[in-house]
Amino acid sequence: MSNSDQKIINFDHEKNFNDEDYYISNANKHIYDLLNKWPNWEKNFLNISGEKYSGKSHLMNIFIKRFGGFQINCKNFKNDDLMKLKNFKNIILEDINKEIDEKLFFTLINTIEQDDRYLITTSKLPIVNVDFDLIDLKSRTKNFLLQNIEKPDDELMFALILKNFSDRQIFIDRKLIEYSIKRIDRSYGKIFEFIYKIDEMSLKKKKPINLKIIKEILGE
User: 159 near 2, Cβ under 8 Å?
Assistant: First the structure.
Protein backbone atom coordinates (compact mmCIF):
# COMPACT_ATOMS: atom_id res chain seq x y z
CA MET A 1 0.00 0.00 0.00
CA SER A 2 1.14 3.57 -0.46
CA ASN A 3 2.00 5.99 2.34
CA SER A 4 2.16 3.32 5.05
CA ASP A 5 3.42 5.96 7.45
CA GLN A 6 -0.08 7.44 7.68
CA LYS A 7 0.02 11.13 8.40
CA ILE A 8 -1.70 12.45 11.51
CA ILE A 9 -3.57 15.71 10.99
CA ASN A 10 -5.43 17.68 13.61
CA PHE A 11 -7.60 20.77 13.48
CA ASP A 12 -5.07 23.43 14.39
CA HIS A 13 -2.22 21.62 12.62
CA GLU A 14 -0.15 21.43 15.81
CA LYS A 15 1.37 18.18 17.03
CA ASN A 16 0.48 18.30 20.71
CA PHE A 17 -2.99 16.75 20.74
CA ASN A 18 -1.66 13.32 21.75
CA ASP A 19 -4.76 11.12 22.18
CA GLU A 20 -6.81 13.54 20.11
CA ASP A 21 -4.90 12.94 16.90
CA TYR A 22 -7.26 12.17 14.07
CA TYR A 23 -6.40 10.23 10.93
CA ILE A 24 -7.48 11.74 7.64
CA SER A 25 -8.14 9.62 4.57
CA ASN A 26 -10.58 9.60 1.67
CA ALA A 27 -13.14 8.03 4.01
CA ASN A 28 -13.46 11.09 6.25
CA LYS A 29 -11.61 14.02 4.68
CA HIS A 30 -14.80 15.61 3.33
CA ILE A 31 -16.18 15.89 6.88
CA TYR A 32 -12.88 17.10 8.30
CA ASP A 33 -12.77 19.87 5.67
CA LEU A 34 -16.38 20.88 6.30
CA LEU A 35 -15.93 21.13 10.06
CA ASN A 36 -12.81 23.19 9.54
CA LYS A 37 -14.85 25.72 7.52
CA TRP A 38 -17.18 26.54 10.42
CA PRO A 39 -19.16 28.82 10.52
CA ASN A 40 -19.18 29.14 6.72
CA TRP A 41 -21.69 26.36 6.12
CA GLU A 42 -24.64 26.23 3.75
CA LYS A 43 -26.94 25.36 6.66
CA ASN A 44 -26.96 25.69 10.45
CA PHE A 45 -27.87 22.04 10.87
CA LEU A 46 -25.36 19.24 10.25
CA ASN A 47 -25.74 15.50 10.67
CA ILE A 48 -22.70 13.22 10.64
CA SER A 49 -23.54 9.56 10.26
CA GLY A 50 -21.33 6.50 10.39
CA GLU A 51 -21.08 3.08 11.91
CA LYS A 52 -19.86 2.42 15.45
CA TYR A 53 -16.14 3.10 15.95
CA SER A 54 -15.99 5.27 12.81
CA GLY A 55 -14.73 8.26 14.83
CA LYS A 56 -17.81 10.49 15.10
CA SER A 57 -17.29 11.31 18.78
CA HIS A 58 -13.57 11.82 18.24
CA LEU A 59 -14.31 14.40 15.57
CA MET A 60 -16.82 16.16 17.83
CA ASN A 61 -14.36 16.34 20.72
CA ILE A 62 -11.77 17.98 18.48
CA PHE A 63 -14.35 20.39 17.06
CA ILE A 64 -15.43 21.42 20.58
CA LYS A 65 -11.84 22.07 21.63
CA ARG A 66 -11.30 24.38 18.70
CA PHE A 67 -14.63 26.15 18.32
CA GLY A 68 -16.36 25.58 21.66
CA GLY A 69 -19.90 24.45 22.29
CA PHE A 70 -22.29 22.35 24.35
CA GLN A 71 -21.94 18.60 23.82
CA ILE A 72 -24.31 15.92 25.10
CA ASN A 73 -25.48 12.40 24.26
CA CYS A 74 -29.12 12.21 23.22
CA LYS A 75 -29.92 9.67 25.96
CA ASN A 76 -28.92 12.27 28.57
CA PHE A 77 -30.66 15.22 26.91
CA LYS A 78 -33.36 16.64 29.22
CA ASN A 79 -35.57 19.73 29.38
CA ASP A 80 -33.17 21.39 31.82
CA ASP A 81 -30.46 21.34 29.17
CA LEU A 82 -32.39 23.76 26.97
CA MET A 83 -31.49 26.56 29.38
CA LYS A 84 -27.85 25.50 29.66
CA LEU A 85 -27.24 25.51 25.93
CA LYS A 86 -28.50 29.09 25.41
CA ASN A 87 -24.99 30.32 26.22
CA PHE A 88 -23.39 28.35 23.39
CA LYS A 89 -23.12 29.03 19.67
CA ASN A 90 -22.58 25.36 18.84
CA ILE A 91 -24.71 22.49 20.11
CA ILE A 92 -23.61 18.90 19.56
CA LEU A 93 -26.16 16.15 20.15
CA GLU A 94 -24.66 12.70 19.77
CA ASP A 95 -26.05 9.26 18.95
CA ILE A 96 -29.43 10.36 17.63
CA ASN A 97 -31.82 7.42 17.48
CA LYS A 98 -35.48 6.50 17.82
CA GLU A 99 -35.28 6.65 21.65
CA ILE A 100 -34.75 10.40 21.85
CA ASP A 101 -37.48 12.63 23.31
CA GLU A 102 -38.86 13.76 19.97
CA LYS A 103 -40.77 16.79 21.24
CA LEU A 104 -37.70 18.02 23.07
CA PHE A 105 -35.53 17.48 19.99
CA PHE A 106 -38.05 19.39 17.85
CA THR A 107 -37.99 22.26 20.37
CA LEU A 108 -34.20 22.30 20.22
CA ILE A 109 -34.21 22.56 16.42
CA ASN A 110 -36.63 25.49 16.56
CA THR A 111 -34.54 27.22 19.23
CA ILE A 112 -31.35 26.82 17.20
CA GLU A 113 -33.02 28.26 14.14
CA GLN A 114 -34.53 31.24 15.99
CA ASP A 115 -31.22 32.15 17.61
CA ASP A 116 -29.14 31.62 14.45
CA ARG A 117 -26.90 29.07 16.13
CA TYR A 118 -25.51 25.73 14.97
CA LEU A 119 -26.61 22.18 15.69
CA ILE A 120 -24.42 19.17 14.91
CA THR A 121 -25.89 15.71 15.39
CA THR A 122 -24.25 12.31 15.06
CA SER A 123 -26.00 9.04 14.34
CA LYS A 124 -25.44 5.58 12.89
CA LEU A 125 -28.01 6.18 10.16
CA PRO A 126 -28.44 9.48 8.32
CA ILE A 127 -30.92 11.47 10.39
CA VAL A 128 -33.45 11.53 7.54
CA ASN A 129 -33.61 7.73 7.81
CA VAL A 130 -34.42 7.65 11.53
CA ASP A 131 -38.05 6.60 11.85
CA PHE A 132 -39.35 9.39 14.09
CA ASP A 133 -43.03 9.32 15.02
CA LEU A 134 -43.41 13.10 15.10
CA ILE A 135 -44.26 14.17 11.56
CA ASP A 136 -43.02 17.74 12.05
CA LEU A 137 -39.70 16.41 13.31
CA LYS A 138 -39.28 14.12 10.30
CA SER A 139 -39.93 17.12 8.08
CA ARG A 140 -37.33 19.26 9.87
CA THR A 141 -34.62 16.63 9.46
CA LYS A 142 -34.72 17.38 5.74
CA ASN A 143 -33.10 20.73 6.58
CA PHE A 144 -29.92 19.04 7.79
CA LEU A 145 -26.72 19.00 5.79
CA LEU A 146 -25.92 15.28 5.59
CA GLN A 147 -22.39 13.91 5.81
CA ASN A 148 -21.51 10.23 6.07
CA ILE A 149 -18.23 8.72 7.24
CA GLU A 150 -17.51 6.17 4.55
CA LYS A 151 -16.17 2.67 5.00
CA PRO A 152 -12.44 2.72 5.77
CA ASP A 153 -10.04 2.51 2.87
CA ASP A 154 -6.74 0.61 3.06
CA GLU A 155 -4.87 3.71 4.19
CA LEU A 156 -7.18 4.34 7.13
CA MET A 157 -7.37 0.66 8.10
CA PHE A 158 -3.58 0.49 8.19
CA ALA A 159 -3.33 3.66 10.27
CA LEU A 160 -5.95 2.56 12.81
CA ILE A 161 -4.37 -0.85 13.29
CA LEU A 162 -0.82 0.49 13.52
CA LYS A 163 -1.78 3.23 15.99
CA ASN A 164 -3.75 0.87 18.24
CA PHE A 165 -0.99 -1.72 18.27
CA SER A 166 1.52 0.99 19.10
CA ASP A 167 -0.66 2.23 21.97
CA ARG A 168 -0.79 -1.33 23.32
CA GLN A 169 2.98 -1.79 22.85
CA ILE A 170 2.38 -4.67 20.48
CA PHE A 171 5.09 -5.15 17.86
CA ILE A 172 3.90 -6.38 14.49
CA ASP A 173 5.61 -6.32 11.13
CA ARG A 174 4.02 -3.83 8.74
CA LYS A 175 3.74 -6.52 6.08
CA LEU A 176 1.48 -8.47 8.45
CA ILE A 177 -0.78 -5.44 8.80
CA GLU A 178 -0.95 -5.14 5.02
CA TYR A 179 -1.76 -8.86 4.82
CA SER A 180 -4.51 -8.46 7.42
CA ILE A 181 -6.32 -5.47 5.94
CA LYS A 182 -6.81 -7.38 2.69
CA ARG A 183 -8.75 -9.99 4.64
CA ILE A 184 -10.67 -8.05 7.30
CA ASP A 185 -14.22 -7.02 6.44
CA ARG A 186 -14.19 -3.35 5.53
CA SER A 187 -15.95 -2.05 8.65
CA TYR A 188 -14.76 -0.17 11.73
CA GLY A 189 -16.33 -2.78 13.99
CA LYS A 190 -14.38 -5.62 12.37
CA ILE A 191 -11.15 -3.61 12.55
CA PHE A 192 -11.47 -3.09 16.30
CA GLU A 193 -12.59 -6.68 16.81
CA PHE A 194 -9.37 -7.76 15.07
CA ILE A 195 -7.29 -5.38 17.22
CA TYR A 196 -8.94 -6.69 20.39
CA LYS A 197 -8.26 -10.32 19.45
CA ILE A 198 -4.62 -9.60 18.62
CA ASP A 199 -4.24 -7.78 21.94
CA GLU A 200 -5.79 -10.72 23.77
CA MET A 201 -3.62 -13.23 21.92
CA SER A 202 -0.48 -11.18 22.53
CA LEU A 203 -1.10 -11.14 26.27
CA LYS A 204 -1.84 -14.86 26.26
CA LYS A 205 1.14 -16.05 24.19
CA LYS A 206 3.59 -13.37 25.36
CA LYS A 207 5.51 -13.45 22.10
CA PRO A 208 5.67 -11.40 18.89
CA ILE A 209 2.73 -11.65 16.53
CA ASN A 210 3.55 -13.75 13.46
CA LEU A 211 1.71 -14.89 10.34
CA LYS A 212 0.51 -18.08 12.03
CA ILE A 213 -1.19 -16.07 14.79
CA ILE A 214 -2.67 -13.64 12.26
CA LYS A 215 -4.18 -16.52 10.29
CA GLU A 216 -5.55 -18.02 13.49
CA ILE A 217 -7.24 -14.71 14.38
CA LEU A 218 -8.64 -14.36 10.86
CA GLY A 219 -9.95 -17.92 10.96
CA GLU A 220 -7.83 -19.08 8.03
Answer: no
Taking the CA atoms of 163, 167, 168 and 174 in sequence, report the sign of the dihedral they define. Answer: positive
- Residues 145-182: pLDDT tens digits? 999 999 999 999 999 999 888 888 888 899 999 999 99
Strand, helix or coil at 73?
Answer: strand
Strand order in the sheet with 70-73: 70-73, 90-94, 118-123, 45-49, 145-148
The DSSP bridge partners found for residue 118 are: 90
Q: What string of DSSP letters covers 11-33? A: TT--S--GGG-EE--TTTHHHHH
**Cα gap 182→1, rounded to integer Å:** 10
The Cα-based distances of 139 to 109, 131, 157 in angstroms read: 11, 11, 36
Give per-residue pLDDT as tens, 128-142.
999 999 999 999 999
pTM score = 0.85
